[in-house]
Structure formats: structure tokens, C-alpha cells
Amino acid sequence: MDPPFGPSTYSDGLKKETWRHSLILSFQTLGVVYGRFSTAPLYVFGTIQTTNFKSNETAYEYFSFLFWTLTIVSLLKYTFIVLRADDNGEGGIFALYSLLCRHCKVGLLPNDRSTEEIMQHEEVSTLRGKVESRARKAIRNRRSSHYFMLFIALFGACMIIGDGVITPSISVLSVSSGLQRSLSNIKYTSSTDAEQTISDDLRKYVPVPSACVITVGLFILQYYGTHKIGFMFAPIVTIWLLFISGVGMYNVFHWDPKIFSAISPVYMYRFVRKINKASWKSLNSILLCVAGSETMFTDLGHFSRRSIKLTFVCLIYPALVLCYAGQAAFISKHWNGTENFNHLSESVPKHLRHVFILLSLLASAVGSQATITATFSIINQCLTLGCFPRVKVIHTSDKRLGQVYIPDVNWLLMALSLSVTIGFHDVTRIANAAGMAIVFGMIVTTCMMSLVIALYWEKSLFVSGCFLMFFGFVEAVYVSACMLSFHKGAWYLFVISAVSFTIMLAWHYGTMKKYEFDLQNRVSTEWLTDYSPGLGVSRVRGIGLIYTDIVTGIPAFFSHFITNLPAFHQVLIFVSFKPHPVPCVPPSERYLVGRVGNKDYRIYRCIVRYGYCDQVRDTDNFEEQIIGSIGEFISLEESDSESLASPEGRMMIVGKPLVESNALIPIHDTTSVAGSTNIANNETLASPSGDFIERKTAVRRKKVRFLIPEGGARMRLSVREELQELIDARESGTAYFLGQSHLTVRDDSNFLKKFLIMAFVFLDRNCREPPVALNIPHAALVEVGMVYII
């Protein structure tokens, strides 16, 4: 089913993916996506209390649980079902949420009704010939279901963020603990008390400092992006998987070849039949074998479905089964005779221990990469959908739009991970928190996926219910086990999640309230076009770009500006950025342009549409794109038969590249040309009397100028004059108008509303990114402050 805006360029890239490209991506996934899976054997059996092993049958029972959990959750659910629910190549909880928003109209994004009416024609093709199901209609008409879906989407995102904090700690600390055990086995020939004390202290204090050093190094490497990290880490993970699978195969044949009989579900039944609180709690450790399943789906935007599935089925799954089988075989023979028998390092042959320590140290650093990358992806999606404070997002690849790096989030994750490592310094306690993050993330995906099956894939409610009941039952078993360990480390996850959820909820609530205030206090276009001349308002040379969230009417801050300074530019362009729940909007469909008022007023409205993987705001040539789209609209307006109806008149979808435009020709001018001073250096204002006041601060030249093409003589005279007036206005200078809101709460508001608005104001003032990241020159920026009483 195509997205409502048509297939994106990203989607086209996926369709044209060759097997050679798939193999290259599969190799990269080893270093990014599957590091978490590959390092899980370091702590799965190792975090189970040794007192839980009563006989060799216990090892069989645990391996049976482990095998079927890995098969049902990771292989069946995620690899063969959930990965199919990508949103034009993007994965994760918010990708599922965006599918539901787009196809079931349950979104709470800041788009008013007029925008929905304008865009409605684009969704007709996807629904044509289909009868809307009763379930879809019921969910669409119930506002409470909209809030519930947003709630579970935010909750799932918080679980992924929490997992991104905890995973680096448990991955690195588990290896450092193995290094400690190796040092403990070293025999010292010296007998002096002082030397023995030094060696004991060295073994005691090695794990935490070494784990902190590795963690810092890992987060420093994030700057280089997914592509380079993938090629850097992939060989390490490949060698590590081959090593542990080889050791596992050796242990199976050397210690207990019958271990594979434990695949039978009969052993799970035996485990449940004699269950007690301690053994049930140990299932929290077994759950860690599927750590990485959720991030496998969330990291989908960094690679492709085919590459992720191919790697898991052909390498990851068989290698992990061999590794766990070998470790279970070793435990079945040493459960009552060897200290630390349940740790992976003990099952490695002694002559390979040093190789194991070296590889595990390297693999542990890689093991956290999947969750860190997933955290970047989910925050980028939340950011674009208005559910996270503004932060700087860096795209590290021009081929894979989902590969992003967020510096502020990276350093915050590092600080929190270090605090977990230093504060807990115990793998078991951290594992309890990690298990909680894993299982709640999976439950959210199960709930969202069941809705996608019924409402987007349009399967029967029986199929959707079976999916929910089957996988929900498996995950509910592990939830009950995790809750028993809540007081032993798992509480920390809820602290992190509560803070993250509060930030995301406060930002979304404040953004919505601010948008509602703009809608309620906007003024009509007639006020600007018909009444303002009678108030003595003057038109001055140049272009005024007014950035606003509303798509109809005049924003309150601009009417406030005109009331105090009665003048505006000869060409006005109201620019609105509108997010849409799709990964990418094709450039040819990005700009929606129309007029405000009569043609003689030279006032236009431009709606810039973007997906949650698009970065249209931080481009240097954004102004040129806007001017070019306005010029294309002017030239095609008379002959266009597909204009869209809007409350203010007709609007048209434009978006041809400037080099292909028949309206205006861009000229990249690097020489000194008269009248081509930069927009930041030639600003024209007007006094109340109408006199022009010009301020010049020449520093640099414009990068692009516009000319009417040679074939412009065939244009209608009115079109040519309007295009020429647009060019002249551009040469005179451009001013950018931004509204600076100051939110305050009414005195009679409840505590929750006051708290959320207060949190929003704090976050808004401390954001590292401006509201409109367009590299606007300070000399051309006009900020208009207003008090918003919410």
C-alpha cells in the first residue's frame, strides 16, 4: 500500500536494492544492529543465581525456555511479521504510530481542519474502492483512543530511551567482571602482604573503571555515523559470533551431546510444574536473550528489511542457538562442582581464555551500538512529530536518510550510562532494569502491531486478536517475572522513563496549546488586505517571510506587529512547516502554494510539508526554494486544472528543481553585481509617515539571483510583470518575521496544567536549536514577542 503522498525517493531506493547492496548492508548490520544480540550470552546465564541450579535437568529447562523465547519472539514475531510493517523503510514504535495516524486519522499532530481538507485529495487514491471498516470508524470517532495511542507510543519510546541508557552499562560491565574473574585466577609467586594487597585491590577495582573507559570511547565514536561504525564494528562481531558458536559446538560434543533434546517443550512444562518464586524470577535473565529484537525493528531506517532479515536468519540465530546450547551443556556437567559455572567465560576452554577476554572486551563495546542507534532514531521521529524538544540532528549519510546522529542526546546517554555503571556496579541489578525495558517495549509493539494488522493491513479482527493474545501471553509471562525484581534495580528504568515521558508529554502539550492559541487569536485575511490601507499601513520594498504554524488567516503576532509599526513589505509570504506521518515527502510534492487575497496584493502562502526523516529547515538554499516555488506557482496558476480548494482560495502543489523551472532561472553569482547585496546586509524599513529608511551593512553577496527565462516573452503580460516584481523584491532584500511566544497559565488552572506549561517554557528556553533552523542572518531577523495566556 503506497503512502498517501506517493512513493518516496527513499522507498524507491529500497525497491531498486540489488543483492550486492543487500550483502553490504547485511555486513554493516553486524556492527550496528546485532551487537546487542551477539553480546547477550555474556550475561544471560551469568545473571541467574547459582542456587537456582538444582540438577542437570535445570540447565535443560532453562535452555528450553531460551530456545523457544528466541524463536517465537525474535525469529517469528520480529523477523517475519513486525519487519513487514515498515513505514516506507522506517521502523520503530513511531513508525507504527504514523501508519495508524495516516490511515485511521488518529493523529494529534498540530494540523488544523483546513490543512486536512486541503490534503484530503491525496488520500482518496489509497481508500478508493474500499469500504471503511467499523473498527476504523469507531477508533477514528473516539477521541480517547487517539490519546491512548499517543500514550502507548510515547511510553514505548521511553522504554527504548531507557534501554539506550542501561545497555551500555550491562554490556561493558559484564565483560569487565569477566576480566576481574580472570585476574582472580592468576597465581602470584610473591608472598609479601603488601604485594598481595595490591593485587587484591587491582582485582577488586578493575570492573567499574575499565567499564567507564570503554563506555566513554563508545560514545565518542558515535560522531562518525552509522556507516563508518558499521564497517568498523562488523568484523569484530563476525569474529566474536564465529568464536562463541565454535566454542558452543565444542561444548555440546565434549560435555553433553543430548542437550538439543531440551528443545522439546516438555522441559518448559517440567520447569513450570515445580516453579517457585526464585526460579520464576530467574526468567528475567532468560528474557535478555531477545535483547536487541526491538532495536532490530527500530534500526530498520538505517539499513533495509532484506539485509536485516538475511543476517538474522543466516548467521545470528544459528550462532546464538549453538552458543547457548554449548553453555547449557557445560552447566549441566558442572552445576555443583565449579565456581561461577554459569558464566560464559568458564565454559571457554582454558587455552582460549585470553582470546575470549580480548574478543569480549571488543564485542562489549559493539553490543551497545544497536540501542544507541535506536535511541537516535526514535528521538528523531519524536522530534519531527512534535513530541520532543528541539535538538540538533545530523544526518550522517546522504544515501540512507534514517542514519542520524544527535550530539546532545549522545552525551546525555553517556552521562546516564556512566551513572548506572558507577551507581549499581552490579550486573544482576542492571540486568533487572534491562529486562524490564525489553519486555515493556515488546508489549507496546505487540499492541500497536495488532492495530496495524486490523486497520492498515485490513486483516480480520480474529487474526489481529490471535496475534495479540499469542505474543501478549508470552510477554506477560516475562512481565510477571520482571516485576518480582522491581526493587532490585528495575525501579531505575521507571525513573528514567518517568522523566523522559514527562519531557515528551510537556513538550507535546505545550506545543498543542500554543497552536490552539494561534488558531483562536488569528485575524482574517480581509483585515490585512482590506482594512489595513485605511489604517495608514504602507508597503515597503523587499520580501517579508512570515513563519507561522497556522495555514489560514493572519497570525496574531504579525497583526500585533502591524498595529505597532504600520508597514509591511511589497511581497509577503506566509510560510508554514507541516509535519506529516510519513518518512519522506518527495521534493516534487513538498510545497503547497496559494494566494492570500486579491492578486494585486502580492501576498502568498506556502505550506512546506515534510516527513519525520526529512530535514528541510536547515538547508542554506531554503529561501531560494521558496522563491522558486512562488515563481512556479505564478507561471502555472492560470493554466493549472488541479489546484486544490482552500478557505483562502486555490492552492497548488509545486516543487520542480530550480534548474528545471520554466518560471525563474537561478544564477549562482559570485561576483559583485549592483543591487545584489545579501539579504542580511540590505534592510528596508518604513516610518509611520511612509518614508523609506534603508540600512546597509554590506558584508557578502547573494549566492543566487533569479532571471526570467528567454522564453518569457510568450508569457502573459500580467504573469511576466508579477514575476519581475518578485525578482525586484528579492533584490531589495528579505526580512524574516518570527513570533516569540511567552506562555503563562491562568490563575484558576489546575496543578497538572501549570506543571506541564512550566516544564514546556523551561524546555523551550533551553533548547539548543532555534524554532526555525534556517541560518537566518541576524540583521534580517525580526522577532515579535507576544504573551500567550493558556
UniProtKB/TrEMBL annotation:
<dbReference type="Pfam" id="PF02705">
    <property type="entry name" value="K_trans"/>
</dbReference>
<feature type="transmembrane region" description="Helical">
    <location>
        <begin position="147"/>
        <end position="166"/>
    </location>
</feature>
<feature type="domain" description="K+ potassium transporter integral membrane">
    <location>
        <begin position="26"/>
        <end position="529"/>
    </location>
</feature>
<keyword id="KW-0472">Membrane</keyword>
<feature type="transmembrane region" description="Helical">
    <location>
        <begin position="355"/>
        <end position="383"/>
    </location>
</feature>
<keyword id="KW-1133">Transmembrane helix</keyword>
<keyword id="KW-0406">Ion transport</keyword>
<comment type="similarity">
    <text>Belongs to the HAK/KUP transporter (TC 2.A.72.3) family.</text>
</comment>
<feature type="transmembrane region" description="Helical">
    <location>
        <begin position="404"/>
        <end position="424"/>
    </location>
</feature>
<comment type="function">
    <text>Potassium transporter.</text>
</comment>
<feature type="transmembrane region" description="Helical">
    <location>
        <begin position="310"/>
        <end position="335"/>
    </location>
</feature>
<feature type="transmembrane region" description="Helical">
    <location>
        <begin position="65"/>
        <end position="83"/>
    </location>
</feature>
<keyword id="KW-0633">Potassium transport</keyword>
<feature type="transmembrane region" description="Helical">
    <location>
        <begin position="461"/>
        <end position="479"/>
    </location>
</feature>
<keyword id="KW-0813">Transport</keyword>
<feature type="transmembrane region" description="Helical">
    <location>
        <begin position="231"/>
        <end position="253"/>
    </location>
</feature>
<protein>
    <recommendedName>
        <fullName>Potassium transporter</fullName>
    </recommendedName>
</protein>
<feature type="transmembrane region" description="Helical">
    <location>
        <begin position="491"/>
        <end position="510"/>
    </location>
</feature>
<feature type="domain" description="K+ potassium transporter C-terminal">
    <location>
        <begin position="542"/>
        <end position="790"/>
    </location>
</feature>
<feature type="transmembrane region" description="Helical">
    <location>
        <begin position="430"/>
        <end position="454"/>
    </location>
</feature>
<feature type="transmembrane region" description="Helical">
    <location>
        <begin position="23"/>
        <end position="45"/>
    </location>
</feature>
<dbReference type="InterPro" id="IPR003855">
    <property type="entry name" value="K+_transporter"/>
</dbReference>
<keyword id="KW-0630">Potassium</keyword>
<dbReference type="InterPro" id="IPR053951">
    <property type="entry name" value="K_trans_N"/>
</dbReference>
<dbReference type="Pfam" id="PF22776">
    <property type="entry name" value="K_trans_C"/>
</dbReference>
<dbReference type="InterPro" id="IPR053952">
    <property type="entry name" value="K_trans_C"/>
</dbReference>
<keyword id="KW-0812">Transmembrane</keyword>
